[in-house]
Amino acid sequence: MAFDHVGADSRMARCPAGSRRFVALAAILWVAWIATGPARPVVTAAADGQPKAARQYAPDREFDLLHLLLEVTPDFERRTIDGTATLRLQPIARPLRELRLDAIDLDIRSVTATAPIQAWRTTTNQVVVTFAAPLPLGNDHTVTITYDAEPREGLYFRTPAMGYREGETHLFTQGEAIMARHWYPCFDSPNERFTSEIVCRVPEGMAVFANGRLVSRESEAGSGRVAFRWLQDKPHVNYLISLVAGPFRSLEDRYRDIPLAFHVLPSEIDQAADSFRGTREMMAFFEEEIGVPYPWAKYDQICVNDFVAGGMENTSITTLTDGTLFTAATENLQDSEGLVAHELAHQWFGDLVTCKDWSHLWLNEGFATYYETLWRGHRHGRDALLYELLERLRSLTSDPGDTRAIVRRTFRSPDEMFDHLTYPKAGWVLHMLRCQLGDDLYRRCIRTYLERHELGTVVTEDLRAVLEELSGRSWDQFFDQWLYHGGYPELEVGYDWDETQKLARISISQRQPVNNQVLLFRLPLTLRLKNQTTLVDRPVVISRVTEEFQVPLPAAPEIVRIDPDLTVLARVRIDLPLSMVRAQLADQADVIGRLLAVEVLAGRSDRESVDALRQALNEDPFYGVRLEASRALRSIHTTEALEALLASRTQADARVRRQVIEDLGGFYRETAFQALRATLEEEKNPGIQAVALEGVAGFAKPEVGDLLLRFLGSTSYRNVLAEAALRGCRLQDDPALVG
């Protein structure tokens, strides 16, 4: 699942800088859905009086649910549903006297079964069916429940009465983590798999989409309704059930024999092609990279209004926020690549193979996050892959106080597990595994893991067992320090050159606090020493608090790099001479080295450093280095830094161009104001114009008000310019601009 935070990234779907950040960092902004029911933990009090979460485990399975048939008729005006749920099941270990299903705020009208029922009742979070005699083992039994519901969660209506566009009334569902119980009675936990069928009756002119394949579409005489029947004939888990209905328009494609379709509301059809481009190529890449064919009958992607997340990977049908749509005018400031790749990867990781309970959620989300990154590297090159990993590493190592483990059972609601540990940190763990195993063996391990557990549920130890079987190595310590404990290595590196002995001496100390939550790490590292004639990569293993390594060289190195290929999730501090930092910035073979050099030079204000950053901003071959050089010049904030930015406004890459304009807005100088104002007139990209407008709004000049009012009345995609003008009016704090 991908999360959404509007206006910055998008949980992860509305990122103005592109969907690369859809899943990487913004999961930490998830607003937890507090659900009731048997899956909700017991909460006790800690010593400080605050609630303390109990340990959470998968619930018992007293019966095997074989098939679920849902028949739903929505009332769009009342925002209610009339439903019937038919469950075919078998007792597992002993005869079943009482059937308990998760159900919240369902108005149960009747309960029938193929066996005599003694009674049924509802509680605040369940419907309980008591049979006259226990259901015997070895036989299928069917229970049918009819009900009405006005769901608060799980199923959402979007109608004109709610402020949405006329003619685009629709509904959609969202089951993860435990919200399906709000619109049908169910076993709402991921440790049960079953086939499913959905029949939905909607007014003529609407379409219905659900899991699996469309079995029938029949008009019901005299009712003005059409009944769509969808069948998912491979077993999946409850939270992946999906139902979407409305007047959608579609684009169709095909990968091999797999139908692909992209569905949007009529007013957004012109944006669909750009937003979903590349899906076919992604599917081909994932099949080759993962080694397992796409497992479902079709793949639909549907954009809905104000989706509750960025995207949701329901089996064979992903629901997406329409905030991921964009026009060509944005250039490359926004794309849907990251979001589309993340949700598509879930069709293997999370759908084909599903975590047994929420403590192992990283097996879903960490894989989807990492394979999104692998797609970016495949599509845009290795530098793009490394840059994404570096951005995530920087975010993950910015909070040393978070010592929680990725795999943990202490949570109050499953939704607490959807965070930066389960997404980017878990993705980084997979990257470290790949780096230690090598590409080929890693792929073989992942393919075996999926094939062995296909259409089943997994825990973390299932993956470790495959890794050990195929690699011959013990992975106990790796899993212990990275998955069952928290934190990360904080490495302090010292460097010295011994000219008399021609030795580079490198000391490495682990400075992270070591306690019950964070271990002393054991990790492989590469030390790289480089000059005009020599490049030496020295592999070492760090396992103690402080260690020293000596590397003989014919001459002093000009560049010293720790973990040059970015294979370890660690915070590294090294103090090097400025000449080495500048040499690192000039090394065209090392994009991570250049990015780290920019980071160091951002703390310098001498002219030579500013000149080096200006050169990087205008000449570096990778956009990320240029972008960060602009930020560094802003942080230096001298007259020379401003001049460097003013001289760098012409950038072919819109991402860098926008960054330069944003950084010029950080200078309260007349030359900066004139450059921003000129950008408003010259720039065609509304996303960059909006940044310039907010920069102009920071100046107390008479003409600023007129500019803001002019753009306040302008038209642009999603009103980005009017919104920027509004924010600018607030900055001006001028009563004349109010109202």
Q: What is the topology?
A:
Elements: H1 21-24, E1 43-45, E2 51-53, E3 63-75, E4 80-91, E5 96-102, E6 106-113, E7 117-122, E8 126-135, E9 141-149, E10 155-158, E11 170-173, E12 193-203, E13 207-210, E14 213-220, E15 225-237, E16 243-246, E17 249-255, E18 258-264, H2 269-276, H3 279-290, E19 299-304, E20 311-312, E21 317-321, H4 337-346, E22 353-355, H5 362-380, H6 382-396, H7 421-437, H8 439-452, E23 456-458, H9 460-471, H10 476-482, E24 490-498, E25 503-510, E26 523-530, E27 535-542, E28 546-552, E29 559-562, E30 571-574, H11 578-585, H12 591-601, H13 607-619, H14 623-636, H15 639-646, H16 654-664, H17 670-682, H18 686-696, H19 702-712, H20 720-732
Helix pairs in contact: 3-4, 4-5, 5-6, 5-7, 6-7, 7-8, 8-9, 11-12, 12-14, 13-14, 13-15, 14-15, 14-16, 16-18, 17-18, 18-20, 19-20
Biggest sheet: strand arrangement: 6-9-4-3-12-15-14
Helix content range:
25-40%
Mean pLDDT: 92
Structural class of the secondary structure composition? Answer: alpha+beta
Quick tags:
30 strands, 5-stranded mixed beta sheet, globular, single chain, 27% strand, alpha+beta, 739 residues
Walk me through the structure.
- The protein is α+β, with helices and mostly antiparallel strands and 739 residues long.
- It has 20 helices and 30 strands.
- The strands form 8 sheets. It has a 7-stranded mixed β-sheet, with no helix packed on it. Strands 17-18-19-21-20 form a 5-stranded mixed β-sheet.
- Strand 7 (117-122) and strand 8 form a beta hairpin.
- Helix 11 crosses helix 12 (591-601).
- The chain is globular and about 90 Å long.
- The model is unreliable at 4-48 (pLDDT under 50).
